[in-house]
Amino acid sequence: MRDALVAAAFQLFLERGYEQTTVDDIVTLAGVGRRSFFRYFPSKEDVVFPDHERCLADMTAFLAASGDEHEPVRRVSDAARLVLRMYAENPTFSVQRYRLTKSVPGLRAYELSVVWRYERQLAEYLRERFAGRRDGTLQADVIAAAVVAAHNNALRSWLRSDGQGDASAEVDHALGYVQSAFGTGPASRPDGHEPHGHEPHGHEPGGDEPAEDVVVVVSRRGAPLWRVVQEIETALGPGT
């Protein structure tokens, strides 16, 4: 019934428009009562994002299962990949939702609130791991924001291409910048394979000696990834 309600809602959104579609219209097309709708979705906005609560719960459980052996930045990067997996499970639906969200300001605001919940979850995990560090809370918040910004930049690029191409590769590439800037090892994929083209942080490519210089760049929350990369390149200097 839940899937039937989502399918009916998006059929009507595409035919009539989001604002012109009511909950009564959705339940009529789905052949159920209003009570059934609100059993699954608190509001019309929630039917547009039917899987985010499940994904947030999966992310919470994934981070809760972390141990001391897990490198923190890699761990939150892998947690972000759970969100990508949710989108990649149904590219057609994800592209439709992306287009709808872009055209309805209220849905865009709702989506931002969902993104903030993901970011808060990542930050809470990192705050626990960085407890006792100097500026540990600041580091946690900055890294969580960077992970979300990198993930979303790659995800939206994939959605703008109508779900064509390798979404995982794009997200791996984007998260590689975060790992290089803040982590202590190369970012890994959930399948255990290492993304190509990223050297372990703190080591020169092709060498065994750790680099002596450490550069930390703090960027405005929500800044586009190209701006973050530009700031990193500027901090590192010519030839990077």
Q: How would you describe this structure in keywords?
A:
11 helices; Arc Repressor Mutant, subunit A; elongated; single chain; mainly alpha; 240 residues; Tetracycline Repressor, domain 2
Question: Concise description?
Answer:
With 240 residues, the protein is mostly helical. Helix content is 65%, strand content 0%. The protein has helices at 2-16, 23-30, 34-40, 44-48, 52-64, 72-88, 91-103, 105-129, 136-160, 167-182, 225-236.
CATH class categorisation of the largest domain: Mainly Alpha
Number of strands: 0
Overall geometry: elongated
> Could you tell me the radius of gyration in angstroms?
20 Å
Distance between the termini: 54 Å
Report low-confidence residues grouped into runs of 5 or more: 187-212
Overall domain count = 2
Order of helices and strands: HHHHHHHHHHH
Number of helices: 11
Q: In this structure, how is the largest beta sheet organized?
A: none
Beta-strand percentage range:
under 5%
| Fraction in helix | 55-70%
Q: What is the CATH superfamily classification of the largest domain?
A: Tetracycline Repressor, domain 2
The CATH architecture of the largest domain can be named as: Orthogonal Bundle
Alpha-beta content class: mainly alpha
Query: What is the fold named in CATH at topology level of the largest domain?
Result: Tetracycline Repressor, domain 2
